[in-house]
Write a structure and sequence with these properties.
Elements lengths: L2 E8 L4 H15 L9 E3 L4 H6 L5 H14 L5 E8 L6 E7 L6 E8 L1 H9 L1 H15 L4 E6 L18 E5 L5 H7 L2 E5 L2 E5 L6 H5 L3
Antiparallel strand pairs: 1-5, 1-6, 2-3, 3-4, 4-5, 6-7, 7-9, 8-9
């Protein structure tokens, strides 16, 4: 099954400063699964990607600065790196100043190997969610979503993709309802991670929102 991880938060600094937290996140998730160990720059071809050296913190920060410099607008996104096997790995995407000025977000498009790990290990899913929430200390929202699940026709009340596991900050207007519907709740950072049933049943639970 295909999975996606997404978190949004209010940035504590400029995009390059946030890039330092992204680099810390990369270091923290590396031990969680073999496909998260080696990170390389995105490239125009598989051959270029294969030959590219591992990314460094300087590479990541310079990449963010470069995209910010050429962007015509304050909001911009970039895909600086991937991990795992080429064409089957995990693709990292970063967004700044969207949907609101001062927002930052991270998305991990999860590849086959890590997806298989999530299918078979809820502990891995919990570790990935907890690590991400701890690093970015979001005041907003996050979700681990199974990409093959149908998206509800209308945006849900929390204005985010529904997830098997979701993060809500304690001061979120959606925190109480998440508490009511969750099958398990785990405090982390300035909020909690809520699990809604199983990867197969969570859309049905969240449709009760």
């Amino acid at each position: 099954m295909e999975w996606g991880l997404a978190f949004r938060w209010r940035a504590l600094g400029d995009p390059v400063s946030e890039g330092r937290r992204v680099w810390e996140w990369i270091q923290r998730v590396r031990p969680l699964h073999p496909s998260l160990d080696l990170w390389r720059p995105t490239a125009d071809s598989p051959q270029e990607a294969e030959q590219a050296p591992p990314i460094t913190q300087d590479y990541l920060l310079n990449y963010i600065h470069g995209v910010q410099t050429i962007s015509e607008y304050p909001d911009f996104g970039l895909t600086p790196a991937f991990s795992g096997q080429i064409n089957q790995g995990n693709k990292l995407e970063l967004y700044f100043n969207t949907p609101n000025p001062g927002d930052a977000a991270i998305t991990l498009m999860i590849g086959e190997a890590l997806g298989t790990g999530l299918d078979t290990s809820e502990g891995l899913a919990d570790a990935l969610m907890h690590t991400t929430a701890t690093i970015f200390n979001p005041d907003s929202i996050g979700a681990l979503t199974r990409e093959d699940r149908p998206v509800t026709p209308a945006p849900p009340p929390y204005q985010y993709l529904p997830g098997w596991k979701m993060f809500f900050a304690t001061d979120s207007p959606h925190y109480q309802r998440a508490t009511q519907l969750a099958t398990t709740t785990s405090p982390v950072a300035n909020g909690a991670i809520f699990t809604f049933g199983t990867p197969d049943t969570y859309p049905t639970i969240l449709n009760q929102w």
